[in-house]
From TrEMBL:
Residue spans crossing the bilayer: 30-53, 60-83, 89-110, 140-156, 187-209, 221-250, 270-290
Protein known as: Putative deoxyribose-specific ABC transporter, permease protein
Membrane topology note: Multi-pass membrane protein
Keyword Membrane: yes
Location relative to the cell: Cell membrane
GO molecular function: transmembrane transporter activity
Top-level taxonomic group: Bacteria
A matching Pfam family: BPD_transp_2
A GO cellular-component term linked to this record: plasma membrane
């Protein structure tokens, strides 16, 4: 059925956005703005693919992608948290570095393909009409993105450690005065964000397009950054936004296939135009934009000696 096929492709397009954006959401709730998501996704994608091809294990590739993203985020954390460099400039440099190093690492893997991640089937439920394939026959990373959303929501809104992280993001000076370890909290948050970006990249090279090509992230890291603002730093809104942007991405492919008389370049830009429109709408509603914005976002913390 065509409707089922479209929904399945929307889920596939939305999953890497959700994974990367969830990590950035946690990073930003700690008060750190990491614009290097695109670079971390690229490094995660090439590392995951290289390890999966070399070992023959998709699970090993996924783990390697997460570790590569976390490792790259450590560079950003050291520069911005320990050395207190400008977070915006450092994040942009991280993106350029990640895109460049991923091209070097992936040079020997261009043109190689491998089977996509296997789909998990639930006996009795996977064969249900329409909803069977959509809900009960997806690969593990689709379910991971949903579970991760629930976990991040619980962590931020229900756990003691999540409350501490939010306190650091809202006022690092006050959190430090209360005895909270601001720098450790931010290091862990940045590493979590890097691991999630690496997972998003791994999904691209192991499931969405099971091969490696240069610039395969194609701006998804920037969309993930916009999703965090679009969702006003709320996990469930972020997941819904990821599926919305995934639908727009798939829409432009189907529109081109249907022969709509618009330039292909314009159709390809739809996801990015939608991102701009969404940010404009959010910025026009000041209270909504500021309600959950971490007050210390993008501000360096230098503890008093």
């Amino acid at each position: 059925m065509w409707a089922e096929a479209i929904i399945l492709t929307v889920i596939t397009a939305a999953t890497p956005l959700a994974l990367a954006a969830l990590g950035e959401l946690v990073t930003e709730r700690s008060g750190v703005l990491n614009l290097g998501v695109e670079g971390m996704m690229a490094v995660g994608a090439v590392t995951a693919f290289a390890v999966a091809v070399t070992t023959g294990s998709g699970a090993a590739g996924i783990l390697a992608g997460a570790m590569a993203g976390a490792a790259l985020s450590l560079i950003f954390a050291f520069l911005t948290i320990t050395l207190a460099t400008n977070q915006v400039a450092t994040g942009l440099a991280l993106t350029l570095f990640g895109l460049g190093i991923s091209g070097v690492i992936g040079d020997g893997f261009v043109g190689i393909s491998r089977p996509p991640l296997p789909q998990l089937e639930i006996p009795g439920l996977s064969d249900l009409p329409l909803v069977g394939r959509i809900l009960f026959r997806q690969d593990a990373m689709v379910y991971l993105s949903i579970a991760l959303t629930a976990g991040v929501w619980w962590f931020l809104s229900r756990s003691r450690q999540g409350l501490k992280l939010r306190a650091v993001g809202d006022s690092h000076a006050s959190a430090h005065a209360l005895g909270l370890n601001v720098m450790l909290t931010r290091y862990l948050a940045v590493m979590f964000g890097g691991a999630c970006a690496g997972l998003g990249g791994a999904y691209l090279s192991l499931a969405y397009t099971p091969m490696w090509i240069d610039d395969m992230t194609a701006g998804r890291g920037w969309i993930a950054l916009a999703l965090v603002v679009f969702a006003t730093w709320m996990p469930w809104r972020l997941l819904a936004g990821a599926y919305l942007f995934g639908a727009i991405t798939i829409l432009q492919f189907h529109a081109q296939g249907a022969g709509i008389g618009l330039p292909s370049q314009l159709m390809s830009s739809l996801p990015y135009l939608a991102t701009i429109v969404a940010l404009v709408l959010i910025s026009g509603r000041g209270r909504l934009a500021l309600r959950h914005t971490p007050l210390s976002l993008g501000k360096s913390f230098v503890p008093e000696r």
